[in-house]
Amino acid sequence: MDVNNVVEKLVWEHLDSVMAQKPDMCRCARCQADVVALALNHLKPRYAVSPMGYAITRAEIMEQAFLVNVLVAIAQGVEQVYRNPHHDEVT
Ligand SMILES: [Zn+2]
Description:
The chain is mainly alpha-helical. The protein has one domain (about 5-85). It is built from 4 helices and 2 strands. The protein has a two-stranded antiparallel ribbon. Helix 1 crosses helix 2, helix 1 crosses helix 4 and helix 2 (about 30-40) packs across helix 4. The protein starts with a strand and ends in an 8-residue tail after the last helix. Zinc ion (ZN) binds near residues 26 and 85.
């Protein structure tokens, strides 16, 4: 069974709308992944296993206005990647 970080799902879901606020931001896969990683470093993970557990954890997160923190963390990640993108690195 998979263990999922509900916060990670939330970050991916809102990535587009936050990046849309910075029109000249690079949207390549590397930059998007970097933004998500930076955002998640600032957020407390919440893990869930079953679909039911996922729904409950998610409802709890919404109730705590956790979404605002998520959006702020994504915006900070966008700003950081915008100034210092890593997509030219040889991997
Ligand atoms: Zn890029």
